[in-house]
Amino acid sequence: MEALNSTRLFVPALPTLWPGMLLGRGEPSGFMPFSAPNVRWFYFARNAVWLTVKMLGLDKGEVLMPAYHHGVEVEAVADAGATPRFYRVGSRWDVDVEDVERRIGPNTKALYLTHYAGFPGPAEEMRRIADKHGLPLIEDCALSLLSADGSVPLGTTGDIGIFCLYKTLPLPHGGALVVNGPRQYSLPEPPTPPITSTLSHTLSALLQNLELRGGRFGRGVRSFIRSLGKGAVKAADIQRVATGTQHFDRRHVDLGMSPFARRIAQAQDLEAIVERRRRNYFFLLGRLRDVSPPLFNQLPAGVSPLFYPLVVEDKAEVLARLHARGIEAIDFWRHMHPACDASAFPEVMQLRRSIVEIPCHQDLSPEVMAEVALVVRGALTQDRRTRKHAG
Ligand SMILES: Cc1ncc(COP(=O)(O)O)c(C=O)c1O
């Protein structure tokens, strides 16, 4: 354990950009949303959520959304003029479809289903309820790119499928709005984002790759370039539209996706990405199930996990331990949107207190995953010991 304590890992939360990916291969892909006939590309998924409300004429009506949500998608719905209402999600990320149906009222204008971290929600059942009540179904796949429910790709059952690309692929930005079925909407082509912003995000992802491959040397080069970069960004007053932020910002609602980011997307081997994510997830499941009860005991066919949802007792403590050891674990969805009454959804609040994202993406080799598992086990058992002593 001592030797391990002295090594600092570098386990980034998101996949990094390999230089070869800048030369896109341009092969057609069978995965959504790349294969969809009717798709619009955006800077982020939140823009697609906002536009969906406008496009379907949901403003002034109510959209029935899950009580377990990020918050930014709720902000986008509200900003576009609709009122979000919430339905119950259970302690295993299970949507309570009976509760969904119970809550449909005269002002309900759409149902909103979110697929959590690649794990499919009940799209078929939601489709049935939506059809029964004559409502459109919005499928939010922002955390579920490349994932399928068996052989049914996520984002193909709803009237609308919404995707975020940059959480799964090493792109500077990217989101998509897919319209399924025969309906046609004339949507303006969103303008391309500022090139400086695209280049600045691309450089960050390349530097992360350097650190991933280059160990101590790579880390040194990255921190040197970052320090120069920060000064340059400030001095040149470069407009950098941050991705992955917590809040919706109307100023960026029209931003589209750059052709450069599309090219990087085309350079990805999507089958291999799914396979690696599944391999890494299985590995963590096997190594961690005895120290933390898994949220899912298996990985159903078709699932491409975004991360491993680790159940912990003290998030802050475990996160601090993992960060200290170089694992970019993330506090998953701590906060409820203020429009949602926390006291009405106790299981969701418990989830918000207990889930930590452990990276399992395509850039992490089996050797790195073995170290990640060891560090996570250490962090969990140490956490328990501390609590026992404190108690
Ligand atoms: C469920 C869900 N929908 C939508 C979004 C918005 O994604 P983006 O950051 O691409 O706007 C997020 C962001 O995390 C999300 O978790």
TrEMBL record:
The keyword Chloroplast does not apply. It comes from the Bacteria. The keyword Transferase applies. InterPro entries: DegT/StrS_aminotransferase, PyrdxlP-dep_Trfase, PyrdxlP-dep_Trfase_major, PyrdxlP-dep_Trfase_small. GO terms for molecular function: pyridoxal phosphate binding; transaminase activity. Keywords: Aminotransferase, Pyridoxal phosphate, Transferase. It holds the Pfam family DegT_DnrJ_EryC1. One of its GO terms (biological process) is polysaccharide biosynthetic process. Belongs to the DegT/DnrJ/EryC1 family. This is UDP-4-amino-4-deoxy-L-arabinose--oxoglutarate aminotransferase. It comes from Archangium gephyra.
